[in-house]
Write a structure and sequence with these properties.
The chain has nine helices and nine strands. The protein is α/β, with parallel strands linked by helices. The strands form two sheets. It has a six-stranded parallel sheet, with helices on one face. A three-stranded antiparallel sheet has the order 1-2-3. Helix 2 packs antiparallel against helix 3, helix 5 packs parallel to helix 6 and helix 6 packs parallel to helix 7. The protein starts with a strand and ends in an 8-residue tail after the last strand.
Length: about 270
């Protein structure tokens, strides 16, 4: 069985963002599908897919690791975010094909089932403390036992830092009053806080609400500084969704910069 064609499909949802997929076809009539995460201009995705297809057409789609290496190691310079997102989608499509060929779900190809169910959390939002608390109550009423939110107000950049921290305290006091202490709540800073000292100030202030974790407290490129920050953090550090390839993941782990690793299957490469 050989790969005959790889195409990129872009669907536009007027109420949200583009949806970008890859479809890999074979001479056996079996095809696989993968998703490209929109890390940048979506118009770049078809170009990358066409570039990788030049190397993969004619190859055996079940030789997944070899095909990945052909694309990744065959590039003269580092591929970058949009290219690795496209390569992630192609990789997914090859797993899809292999599972169909063997008549097995992909999780069985990766070692089999480990658990019968996976706990999910819900992102909550709100401009004011009351809005945030109401969204939290609504999701807990649906059955969620864990939530995640930004530790700061949507308008925190317009505030003095001390006022932003005080506002964050008010927001999560309202959340805890609405849902109690049994529900886990994680914080996601979206790598928006530039100074590590401010991350520590904010986290220390929010510790009374028993945070589950602080996600992406600083920019993820600085793995060394993430390790130094984690040594001082009073709660778990989560990160990884914006890192590419096993090499960057290993660098983060080696620096001791993470407690909860969050690789994004549509980005990681």
């Amino acid at each position: 069985m050989k790969i005959t064609n790889i195409e990129c499909l872009i669907s536009t949802d007027a109420s949200a963002s583009n949806l970008v997929y890859v479809k890999t076809k074979t001479d056996a009539g079996i095809y696989g599908v993968g998703e490209v995460y929109h890390v940048g201009p979506d118009a770049a995705s078809p170009v990358w897919v066409e570039y990788f297809a030049e190397q993969l057409v004619g190859q055996d789609p079940t030789e997944i690791e070899r095909n990945w290496a052909l694309c990744y190691q065959g590039a003269r310079f580092p591929i970058g975010s949009t290219g690795l997102a496209a390569l992630s989608a192609i990789d997914q499509s090859l797993w899809d094909i292999t599972g169909k060929v063997l008549d097995k779900p992909v999780y069985e190809l990766m070692g089999g089932r480990v658990r019968d169910k996976i706990r999910a959390y819900w992102d909550i939002h709100g401009t004011t403390p009351n809005e945030l608390a109401e969204d939290a109550r609504k999701q807990v009423d649906k059955g969620f036992t864990a939530l995640k939110a930004s530790p700061l107000s949507p308008s925190w950049r317009e505030m003095r830092w001390n006022d932003a921290v005080a506002d964050g305290l008010a927001r999560f006091k309202a959340v805890r009053e609405a849902i109690g202490n049994e529900i886990d709540v994680g914080f996601d800073a979206h790598a928006a806080i530039f100074e590590p000292i401010r991350v520590l100030e904010l986290t220390d202030a929010l510790m009374e609400f028993n945070p589950w974790f602080m996600e992406e407290p600083i920019r993820m490129e600085n793995r060394h500084e993430m390790g130094k920050l984690r040594d001082k953090m009073p709660c778990a550090v989560a990160t990884g969704e914006c890192l590419y390839t096993k090499f960057e993941m290993w660098e983060l782990i080696r620096e001791g910069g993470v407690d909860i690793l969050q690789p994004e299957v549509c980005i990681v490469g």
